[in-house]
Write a structure and sequence with these properties.
This protein is an alpha+beta fold and 358 residues long. The protein is built from nine helices and 14 strands. It is globular and about 65 Å long. 46% of the residues are buried.
Length: 358
């Protein structure tokens, strides 16, 4: 696999220390679905960075007592040993090793927790892998301080090697990832903040996440991405994503919330249509998901308010709306939509500014 020499550091002696980062989830407006090479996107994507749905990860590092072939680490999730996560962490370490060779020289004690349910379609891998990448990169930063732009660019690069969407969780309020003519300087290697002037209405956008199903998804995103390789609609989808990126850029600059709605909802439905057209096909929406989508459309027609939905690769529904319309929409969610959530649970979130060192 070809390496990106821009991110290979100089060697340095092992260090002792501890760092803690909190990194948010994100919700894609133009969806990334399908990949090639080493975690590279088949189409560009753009996302809102969230504020409250985040992973908080502490990485304590010390010189490794005895060198070996593997990696030396401990991992706690929500305060408990979770060996089921170890294979994914080891695969992540293998991928980033050329760009963070110092992880072989250290023992890493990693402790992580979420502010939202794990594996329920709220991109927990995005927040989790980005927080871990930031913690690991901080070891290098202590030895060889980087400017902010270089640090976040490499953090996005490393996070992507753990989970593609994690590339977009490093900064905010909006991140694009994937080479596209719509954005100068765009890259498949890392995500970049929205470089244009983002209209104020979108800097305070609300995202209420309806927890239709808080359980483990029956088909992982990794499996779903791989199924795109033989999906007959993939070429048209990738072309559509480039078109939508260009259209959405104009919408985000102008503040056209009316045009925002059909594009974002089309992206959500296209994502799930691609799943249903895969071989083998799979369906992640639940009956309550479909009921909510219909009720959102009816509410919008009845009130003229700018409530819209989007979906990730799961059953849960993200409801996006302007802050100034929060009161009537929050009432609608509480009185009409909560009944379709598991145990009436939902999360009120909003656009955030990205990861923070704790």
């Amino acid at each position: 696999m070809k390496r990106n020499n821009d991110f290979i550091p100089n060697a340095f002696d092992p260090l002792t220390g501890k760092t803690t980062w909190e990194s948010p989830s994100n919700i894609a407006l133009v969806k990334y679905w399908g990949k090639y090479g080493q975690q590279l996107p088949s189409n560009p994507s753009i996302s809102f960075t969230l504020s409250h749905c985040k992973t908080i990860t502490e990485v304590a590092f010390s010189p490794r007592e005895k060198q070996g072939d593997g990696f030396s680490f401990d991992f706690l999730f929500e305060g408990k040993e979770t060996p089921a996560f170890h294979p994914k962490i080891e695969a992540f370490f293998e991928r980033i090793l050329p760009y963070a060779p110092y992880i072989k020289d250290h023992h890493l004690a990693i402790s992580s927790k979420n502010t939202f349910p794990h594996s329920s379609g709220i991109a927990s891998s995005a927040s989790g892998m980005s927080a871990m990448a930031l913690g690991i990169l901080s070891i290098e930063h202590l030895n060889n301080p980087m400017d902010e732009d270089s640090f976040y660019k490499k953090a996005s690069f490393l996070a992507r090697l753990g989970s593609g969407s994690a590339a977009r969780s490093i900064q905010g309020p909006m991140m694009s990832w994937g080479k596209t003519a719509a954005f100068s300087g765009s890259s498949d290697d890392f995500a970049s903040p929205f470089a244009e002037t983002l209209h104020p209405v979108f800097t305070t956008y609300k995202d209420t996440i309806l927890l239709i199903d808080q359980g483990q998804k029956k088909v992982s995103s990794t499996v779903g991405h791989n199924l795109m390789k033989n999906n007959p609609y993939a070429p048209a989808r990738f072309e559509q994503a480039h078109t939508h990126m260009k259209q959405l850029k104009s919408i985000l600059e102008s503040g056209d919330v009316q045009a925002f709605i059909p594009l974002v909802e089309s992206e959500a439905l296209t994502l799930h249509a691609l799943m249903m057209a895969s071989q083998p096909a799979f369906i992640l929406m639940h009956p309550n998901t479909l009921t909510v989508l219909n009720k959102v459309e009816e509410f919008r027609q009845d009130t003229g308010l700018h409530l819209c939905f989007t979906l990730d690769a799961g059953a849960n529904v993200h409801l996006l709306y302007p802050q100034e319309e929060e009161q009537p929409i929050a009432h609608f969610i509480k009185t009409e939509l909560a009944a379709f959530c598991q145990e009436r649970q939902y999360i009120d979130d909003e656009v955030g500014t990205g990861a923070k060192k704790v």
